[in-house]
Write a structure and sequence with these properties.
The protein is 48% helix and 15% strand. A hairpin with a 2-residue loop joins strand 16 and strand 17. Helix 20 crosses helix 27. The longest helix has 29 residues. The chain starts with a helix and ends in a 13-residue tail after the last helix. The chain binds ligand OX2. Its cofactor is pyridoxal 5'-phosphate. GO terms for molecular function: glycogen phosphorylase activity; pyridoxal phosphate binding. Belongs to the glycogen phosphorylase family.
Length: 803
């Protein structure tokens, strides 16, 4: 109860800081509340773990090199069913919960969609009562903090642990050793079995930090285990100087902020092996406590490989089965296949990880031997199956002096899934077609989903309360119940209430924009939002070109009617991705020009919010009117901001790409604005090689005028950047067909403006989007993973399923 909470809170504050509420800082209050929560859910966590153990329940382990949880306090309170009590209790003490969550560090151990998906899954797995855990790296520094200086992106370190982390627990007793480098050869042991003998290995200690993943009002608390490197006591004498120690500690120091190019080299490869080896060792150690025979491990353990970064799970698991458990190759391979499954998140060729053979051999000699043997057997087996030998060259793991991680992941997993229908189709028919012909049964689709609790219940309180009043509260447990809102699509009272909620969120965002960027925007304008990593294929440039066109229209005819719009961007560029940084600079300079031009009369505003992250997304998304999902068809595997924006009543403007297609299917053609060429047309262009960007420049005066603005001084301070953009389109023939889609994009944007003017129509479309967003709940997605891929079942109290 509220009274109990107040007593406990004061007591804890006094124990921890010897302070009363009046003297404590927000950080001290935050830590007090965090520690109180932690003590409270720890017993559930222990109980959950005991139940899994007693039931010998099969558990899934989600291996991901990125997790992007954002802040945890509010969502933990919600899931613990403490939120209201705590808010009221704190209020009585004169404390606003928002002031406490304000000081929480945003946990950003990921780049974007891939890491955020992992965290949405963690929430949903626990909330569905499923036995599933995360396994990753505890980076000392998360994704860089972005600043703009003269319109350029500057990266600052994200020292997120400097103020402590109330959610994690260091588990010294669960540390394991991970070995690198050295030499290895095989020797026969007494039983005539080949065993590896190592020389000169580097031994490092992997120490786990566990964070409870709290289920929604179900008392289930799963675990996200993140590993940190240390020098083992036995090795202390080897690392005398500070520099030597530092090179070791570097292993888990930084998240490689590059999710598009395979870079970072040796440290990145070492990171991949580090968390994979530590994770698998700890799983096998746990398995032994069940006292079941090792060849049945697949009945108790499922390991998921989230994109290729953890693909070394396959040879590492083989290594342990062969070298430590004494299995034959055939036995080991049979269980490995049954344990492993793999998700592909992109078809972008440059994101397909490949490692030079020499590097792998040097860093992980035994693992390399095992990969070689997997490859050799794959070739041998496949030769018997196919007529056309060229398929082997295209699918084998080791080729052209490189190790293909996706090939390893596919060959060693029983399930391979894409993340949206179109994406999974393209994997089968184009990108992984050869593999599909070899292993058709392994391929399946699992369309992404989002943690709707975080993205609606927590992020959008005004809308949540309208929903409660209109359709009751069942949608909070069962997002599909949002469908009931469809009964109110012509109810003006409900539409007005939804519009008022949106208004409140827009005012909130406008205040944030004023505070952080000192730009005044009117909540009467259309809030048009594009938030995602900056990448050429996502085509922030197409958005910018449209903005420049609007600006030029106003300049040419200052008194003409122009419906006010605020274009809002949030995006980080990989530090080494020069072109993406160029686009940021161009957007920022255009913003400078447009926002300060008196002719514009505030009808057009551009806001590029600094340091886009999960917490900022939670403020932007509820305030959005328009959701920009404008990647070139075929390139965005799924997208997940598209789902979050839809859930919050934004109307989508989209290409037929990724999950946009499924959003269209859910809301109907009339309630989404589709434009642009299809994936088939994209492939036709590739095939015929007939795309000519310059012809659009020559024949379309609007395109010409917009592009000239990049190089003729119209937009100040972008001499080199403007030229670079111009050249990318005209000299290098516009890799992502921006000019091809420009005209239809502009038309779709004009339609949006017309529609927005018809308030009632707009509100109805917005309502239809909210009502149909339930299908994108990550709860449903993880249930499909649980049933089809992992074969895990929800906890049943004291079930004695396996004796
Ligand atoms: C992203 C994809 O680009 C995005 O389309 C998808 O929604 C998300 O993963 C979650 O599946 N790195 N990030 C991604 O893929 C890779 C590789």
């Amino acid at each position: 109860t509220k009274e109990q909470f107040i007593t406990q809170f004061k007591k804890r504050l006094s124990e921890k800081y010897a302070m009363g509420v009046e003297d404590a800082s927000p950080t001290e209050l935050y830590n007090t509340l965090g520690s109180l929560m932690h003590s409270a859910y720890s017993s559930d966590r222990h109980h959950t773990w005991r139940q899994y153990l007693l039931n010998k329940q099969k558990q899934a382990y989600y291996f991901s090199i990125e997790f992007l949880p954002g802040k945890l306090m509010a969502s933990n309170l919600l899931n613990m069913d403490w939120l209201e009590t705590v808010e009221e209790g704190l209020a009585e003490l004169g404390i606003d919960l928002a002031d406490l969550t304000e000081v929480e560090q945003d946990m950003a151990l990921g780049n974007g969609g891939l890491g955020r998906l992992a965290s949405c899954f963690m929430d949903s797995i626990a909330s569905c009562g499923l036995p599933g855990n995360g396994n990753g790296i505890r980076y000392e520094y998360g994704l860089f903090k972005q600043k703009f200086i003269d319109g350029h992106q500057v990266e600052l370190p994200d020292d997120w642990l400097s103020t402590g982390n109330v959610w994690e627990v260091r588990k010294d007793s669960k540390a394991v050793d991970v070995c690198f480098y050295g030499q290895v050869h095989l020797e026969e042991d007494a039983n005539g079995k080949l065993k590896p003998v190592y020389k000169n290995q580097q031994v490092l200690r992997a120490v786990p930090y566990d964070t409870g993943m709290i289920g929604y009002k179900n008392n289930i608390v799963n675990n996200m285990r993140l590993w940190s490197v240390e020098i083992p006591n036995s090795e202390e004498s080897k690392y005398r100087s500070l520099e030597e120690r530092r090179t070791i500690e570097d292993l888990t120091a930084v998240l490689y902020p590059d999710d598009s190019n395979a870079k970072g080299q040796m440290t990145r490869l070492a990171q991949e092996y580090f968390f994979v080896s530590a994770g698998i060792q700890s799983i096998v150690r746990y398995y032994h406590t069940l006292k079941e025979p090792i060849h049945r491990i697949h009945e108790y353990v499922a390991i998921h490989i989230n994109d290729t970064h953890p693909a070394l799970c396959i040879p590492e698991f083989m290594r342990i089965m062969l070298d430590e458990e004494g299995m034959s190759w055939e036995e080991a391979w049979a269980v490995t296949l049954k344990v492993m499954s793999y998700t592909n998140h992109t078809i972008m060729a440059e994101a397909m990880e490949k490692w030079p053979i020499d590097m792998l051999k040097q860093l992980l000699p035994r693992i390399y031997q095992i990969i070689e043997e997997i490859d050799r057997r794959f070739v041998e087996e496949t030769e018997l199956k196919v007529h056309d030998r060229s398929i082997i060259d295209r699918t084998r793991i080791i080729n052209h002096n490189q190790v293909h991680m996706a090939h390893l992941a596919i060959i060693g997993s029983h399930s391979i899934n894409g993340v949206a229908k179109l994406h999974s189709e393209l994997l089968k028919t184009v990108v992984l077609h050869d593999f599909y012909s070899l292993y058709p049964a392994r391929f399946n689709n699992k369309t992404n989903g989002i943690a709707e609790r975080r993205w609606l219940q927590l992020a959008n309180r005004p809308l949540s309360s309208v929903l409660d009043k209109t359709i009751g509260t069942s949608w909070r447990d069962n997002p599909e119940d949002l469908q009931q809102l469809l009964n109110y699509q012509d109810d003006q009272k409900v539409l007005n209430a939804l519009a008022a909620a949106k208004r409140q969120n827009k005012e909130n965002l406008a205040a944030l924009i004023k505070k952080t960027q000192d730009i005044t925007v009117s909540p009467d304008a259309i809030f048009d939002v594009q938030i995602k990593r900056l990448h050429a294929y996502k085509r922030q440039l197409l958005n910018l070109m449209h903005i420049i066109k609007c600006y030029q229209d106003i300049k040419n005819n200052p008194d003409s009617e122009f419906y006010p719009r605020v274009f809002i961007f949030g995006a980080k560029a990989a530090p080494s991705y020069a072109y993406a940084k160029t686009i940021i600079k161009c957007i920022n300079e255009t913003a400078n020009l447009v926002n300060n031009d008196p002719d514009v009369k505030d009808r057009l505003k551009i806001v590029f919010l600094e340091n886009y992250n999960v917490s900022l997304a939670e403020v932007i998304i509820p305030a959005a009117d328009v959701s920009e999902q404008i990647s070139l068809a075929s390139k965005e595997a799924s997208g997940t901001s598209n789902m979050k924006l839809m859930l919050n009543g934004a109307v989508t403007i989209a290409t037929l790409d990724g999950a946009n297609i499924e959003i269209r299917d859910a809301v109907g053609e009339e309630n989404i604005n589709i434009f642009g060429i299809t994936e088939q047309e994209v492939y036709d262009y590739y095939e015929s090689n007939t795309y000519s960007a310059v012809s659009y420049f020559e024949k379309d005066p609007v395109i010409r005028r917009v592009l000239e603005a990049f190089i003729d001084g119209t937009i100040p301070n972008i001499q080199s950047e403007g030229r670079e953009v111009f050249d990318s389109l005209i000299r290098y023939n516009d890799e992502f067909f921006v000019l091809r889609d420009f005209e239809s994009y502009v038309k779709a944007q004009e339609k949006i403006t017309e529609c927005y003017k018809d308030k009632r129509k707009w509100q109805k479309i917005s309502l239809i989007n909210i009502a149909n967003a339930g299908v994108f709940s990550a709860d449903e997605t993880v249930k499909r993973y649980a049933d089809d891929i992992w074969q895990i079942e929800p906890v049943t109290e004291y079930s004695s399923k396996k004796g």
